[in-house]
Amino acid sequence: MFKKKLQMPLFLIAALLFGAKTYIVYRFVFNISLENNMQEFILLINPFVTALFFFSLSLFFNERRQLKFIKYGILIGSLILYFNIVFYRNFSDFITIPVLFQGSNVADLGSSVLDLIKFWDITLFADVIIIWFIAKKYGDQLAVSFSKRYRGLVITISIACLVGNYVLAEIERPQLLQRTFDREYLVKNIGVFNYHIYDAVLHSKSKAQRVFADGNELNDIADYIKEEATIPGSEEMHGIAEGKNVIFISLESLQTFVINNTVNGEEVTPFLNDLIDDSYYFENFYHQTEQGKTSDSEFIVENSLYPSPRGAVYFTHGQNDYHALPEILNNQDYYTSVFHSNNKSFWNRDVMYDNIGYDHFYDENAFEVTEENSIGWGLKDKDFFKQSIKYLEQIDQPFYAKFITLTNHYPFDLDEEDATIDQYDSNSNTLNKYFQTARYMDEAVEEFFTYLKESGVYDDSIIILMGDHYGISDFHKRAMLQYLDEEEYTDYLHVQLQRVPFYVHIPGQEGGVVSKVAGQIDVKPTILNLIGLDAEEDLSFGTDLFSDERKDFIAFRDGSFITDDYVYTKSQCFNRETGELIEPTPEDELADPEDPQTGCEPMIEKVEQELNYSDEIIFGDLFRFYDFKDEQAQKEEK
Ligand code: GP9
Ligand code: MN
Questions:
Q1: DSSP string, 554-604
Q2: Separation of 291 CA from ligand 2 center, angstroms?
């Protein structure tokens, strides 16, 4: 059968067998969701491309070692895949390096590991058995010794295939590696083996930065924070929510421009518009997220630190020591939980939530998700709130509960029966649909308020609502200009469009519209003050939004910022009210040309320094060196 002329080299047989097996595992063992043909195609080619590259490395060895490389390569590869399968059966997630070192997870697995291994699993090693068998029987005929040139050609082809796979993945999911999406996305696009390599690189990078830190860096940072970013919380609002439940609603992709606005003559968000009348509503509140999108907004709110300039800090530094809101609230006997109907590993939430002290995460497994009640990214918001209320009624009070909505997410798909207003009419399908899903979310939130009132939870709670980040990117400039009735999409306009709604709704209080410049960084100190804690003891970059005093600026991750008077972005300074460009003062009119302290200038460096300090804290994991005063002790002291 293996005549010299017709034979296929062992490395190719191994690549085919192992590739086919891996594909079968992706399709039928891992529950990987495929949304379009491109994703199906990538998932199909990836196992073969990766296996071809790996086994073609065997060509560098002499014939005897080549067989060994292939035999042990396929065995080890199969074991890695199998460990992932066993892990997946328990956690519906892929192994990460930190998880391997995370005692509790592995212990969880340990107790049930026998249940997770099935007899027929032996078939998952069929390729190993075949390769070992034919290597033994026909090995000397199947090993090849190519000339240098031929070997080079094979390796080049296999690398080209790998690059091709990556390019397709990048088209399908731009900035795949920088944005460190969900592990399922990574595995889906680059395969489980490349994912492990990627995970290892990420892990060692953040480990190294951590290793070189010794805690001394914190002195300067703490000094800076005390001097520049610490302002006493509002006395009037101090403790107003003490002992009350705090319900936090993250409004997916909701931007301020839809609030109190209409489409085809109809209000986009009637409920949220009315809610302004009996809430504190911050009309100049900016999101400060970067590549980590929703998870960045969560991170900023929980820690009052800036997100990472690259990737999602939830992923890259999900294991750090933090002094996060849930942990602080736990110490005040709050029960802390998150409600979000998505895969729990998305944005590494399962790991991060555990780390920062949430008592429970009601992830997609807590909900009944069917074809009818889901759209786009999953469970529809109305069903999400409806199904959540039974849990909320049961948990101990006072609680902190975060609800993360999902329906108003790109590409803003909605079933016809759920659309209660017409689409907009512009060249952007995305913007056209956005208003409908925003309205849907508005109705869902309204229903949630009704449930809260019916269950009696409402009266003992304060409710905070916040848009997590923009929904309409600047790819839709033309349509946005048409909608806003503006002439030119300036950098100033772009910054102003980064405003997201922020409400503090306190039943029984009238509230009011607040115009001061504010941002997500301020949410944590605001909540702490409301429940009667002293944010001054914290190390964070935000300030209480009800305090009369303010820090000078709200910074974006790219160094842009907004002050009372100015908007600074892309090296331009604008008047915040009028949007007029402020030309730099001519050099001969400056007192000190080296130090042109006018307009936005004085703040540029300060903002950069603050962002750097935040990065230093995160990259060096500096809070492990800091002894935060227990909030309970703080209270008792008082
Ligand atoms: C995913 C949801 C949306 O669970 O929070 O994430 P996003 O893409 O907005 O970051
Ligand atoms: Mn989001």
A1: EE-TTS-EE-SSEEEETTEEEETTT--B-PPPPGGG-S-TTS--STTHHHH
A2: 11
